[in-house]
Amino acid sequence: MKSINTAVETNKIIRFFQDLGTLTRIYLLLSFITFSVVFIIGALMHLQNKISIAPLSTINGTAATVPTTVFLDMMTTQIPVLEEAPTSTLSQKNISKFLFQILSGINPNNPKSLVALAIPGMERETPSLLYGGDAASSISPVEYNPPANVFQQGEIPSTTEESPPPVASEPTPINQLDENKGSKSVFIYHSHNRESWIPELTKVTNPDLAFDATKNVTLLGKRMKESFDKLGISATHSNKDYPSSVKDFTYPKSYQYSKLTVKEAFAANPKLSYLFDIHRDSQGRSKTTVTINKKDYAQIYFVVGEKNPNWEKNMEFAKKIHDKINEKYPGISRGIYGKNSNGNGEYNQSFSPNSSLIEIGGVENTLVESYRTIDILVEIIADVLKDAEKV
């Protein structure tokens, strides 16, 4: 009986449309299509406002992920002189792989990337070059999680007492700011406070084990604060040791721990304006060192957290420092990179538009080389602060 009633109703609807004139039917059809288009566009605009677009989907991030050979092959199609290239990357197979990786985040040549998307903390995406480097030859910053037992008591013998940390000879002179230029407060901290360097540790040759309870990146933060103090710039430094102070410490949660440190700093001084999270990279010496005037310096990476809704402002802040430091000391900064990992991707940078994560050198640099870079970094940041005060 139910099916009979449904058939009757359907027949009524069909007869109704048949009774309508041709123009009326066209009008109703166009009205329905217009309504559908407007609805779909409205829904897409609503989703666009809700979803934070990462730089990877913009020209900044995407262009940096395209191999140089692809650009060369594209140019070959328009410049006959370049047709001597022996092979072409613009094959259907290569283009399909590239598009698949851009859209899905899965590397077809690396099956582990599929697993990494499903397991929090395992993702190791390649940072996208946002500014200041050559996409063709850029060397992205690298971070590896240390073994789980490396922070257990006794696993990291302190070497500071046996060999005190050296200081950089002939520190770079820094121009003094005016006395009234110290109103902006600087906060320096370290999410990975035990990151150390192989040349400064005894009996350590494995980069994954280059962590130390006392001889670590907190020394760079201390040097940074002292340099700001000499300029009359208000600076605070946290050398908090998370492995020993946090119950059930786990390395992947480092930025959760340091976030509490930043909150405590703001509670103590609401006028904080500039935040610097100082790290060292995990790459070898050849990729993190530059020679200027016959002296070796640890190179710098700036990292921007793309999950921060206002990441563009943090990038602009890093850009000011990058441009000034490379203008005066060419090659010190390797560029600004964006990260949007499942594990972090924000890096406490939503606290201030003047917040930056800075990698100083790598695991095979020396403390002296890192100190040299810190000295000129403070010099440049002081100039940026002075420009901000003028504005």
Automatic annotation (TrEMBL):
Keywords from the named record: Membrane, Transmembrane, Transmembrane helix
Highest taxon of the lineage: Bacteria
Transmembrane segments: 26-47
Location of region: Disordered: 143-178
Name used for this protein in its record: Stage II sporulation protein P
Protein source organism: Paenibacillus alginolyticus
